[in-house]
Design goal:
The protein is built from no helices and nine strands. It is an all-beta fold and about 120 residues long. The termini are close together. The protein has strands spanning about 1-5, 15-20, 25-30, 35-40, 45-55, 65-75, 85-95, 95-105, 115-120. The strands form two sheets. The chain has a five-stranded antiparallel beta sheet with strand order 1-9-4-3-2, with no helix packed on it. Strands 5-8-7-6 form a four-stranded antiparallel beta sheet, with no helix packed on it.
Length: about 120
């Protein structure tokens, strides 16, 4: 079972791995054995996925997180027939480097476009 958490809980933690699973989720595993998942639980009429990763995920492994934050922007411009959309940016940094993960979610306006961040129970 996954319980919702703010991404900021990663600050100070050191990762043993960070995996991108087909632009549908990122899985963070700490050196202490904790597993965290950044994903969207798909529903009927929306689409949410990783649009872009700037930086190297390998820079997030082996050094404590100095930064872990989320920033969202909704409905800044219209793309095609979409009635609603959300950009969600996750910014991570260690002494080794900086990574920004950009998610794009679109829907008819009745479904969630948010990204979930959860720890394995």
């Amino acid at each position: 079972m996954w319980n919702s958490e703010p991404v900021e809980v990663l600050k100070g933690k050191t990762m043993s791995s960070v995996a991108n699973n087909g632009d549908e989720e990122l899985v963070f595993t700490t050196t202490g054995g904790e597993t965290w998942k950044l994903y969207h639980e798909q529903d009927c009429c929306e689409s949410v996925s990783i649009e872009d990763i700037t930086g190297e995920l390998s820079d997030l492994v082996g050094a404590p997180f100095l930064m872990a934050e989320e920033i969202s922007q909704e409905n800044e411009e219209v793309r095609g027939e979409q009635e609603s959309f959300t950009w969600t940016f996750y910014k991570f940094a260690t002494i080794k480097g900086y990574v920004t993960v950009r998610w794009y979610g679109s829907s008819s306006g009745y479904y969630s476009e948010s990204v979930n961040f959860c720890r394995a129970a």
